[in-house]
Amino acid sequence: MDHLLVLLHGYGDDPDGLAWLADELSEPGRRVLIPPAPLPSPVGGRAWWFFDPADRPAWAWPGPVPPDYTGHRLVGAARAEVLALIAEHTAEHAGGPVTVAGFSQGAMLALDVAVTPGSGVTKVAALSGVMIADTLPNLGTGTRPAALVAHGVHDDQLPFAAGEGTRDLLAEHGFDVEWLPFAGGHEIPDEVIAALRRFLAG
Predict the structure, then answer these.
(1) Gap between the Cα atoms of 63 and 60, Å rounded
(2) Domain of 193: which CATH number?
């Protein structure tokens, strides 16, 4: 049975932007897929959803989610697309373990996909991301893949506290969380790659 690794790129990027990471993490018995986000980004590349202040998913951090918040349609569409990809490939390759790892916006989606009941995801890595409110309803369902959360102390795009908040939300709901702060910005440095290798092998 192959180990399926799905890498989800960030906003304004595309699969080519994570091809180097796929090369770093590839090994015999591991299949790596990098699906393209469905939407063209206004800054170039692709997007899973847009960052329009008037029409974007709420963060689960900081503070309470608005009581009238409902799941965002574009998050739901992105979730369904990645879940369908996982189902298709696990059916074709005898249902081995599944890891979803994402960077930035891809990290938000990776967490959301991984905790969806029936996802089949066994591990999830959120790199320089934040949990979104759409993910909260599924945190208590009992679908608890092992999690790696990594975030740069000097991240100028998603604050370091967003990573800490994501770690805390997962831990509060009984997830086994490996927390990796690093002295860098919005990036995937060598120490995170090394941690990913250990996480995937464990």
Answers:
(1) 7
(2) 3.40.50.1820
